[in-house]
Amino acid sequence: MPTAELPLVTIIALCYNHARFLPQALDSILSQSYPHLEVLLVDDASTDESAVILQQYAAAHPTWRLLLLAENVGNCRAFNQAFRQSAGSL
Length: 90
Fold this sequence. Notes:
Number of helices: 3
Distance between the termini: 17 Å
Radius of gyration: 13 Å
Structural class: alpha/beta
Mean pLDDT: 96
Strand content: 15-25%
Shape: globular
Helix content: 25-40%
Strand order of the largest sheet: 1-2-3
Number of strands: 3
Order of helices and strands: EHEHEH
């Protein structure tokens, strides 16, 4: 089936102070074989190096979108901000 006919799957990678886990988590997104993905990276105003790592991955993968929140709003609100920007059906 051509990629255009496959449903768009959105991955929202949400983090708050998870720098030590990010490379492994983001590399797992890269290892996915499904071809029609939308990736949104969200940092909920982390105080560690999370935003830097997310910026590096976003720069290396220009189709990934990055949302750096200026203040910590909590998991649900941060996720919902990304969700409202997503286009995937799954």
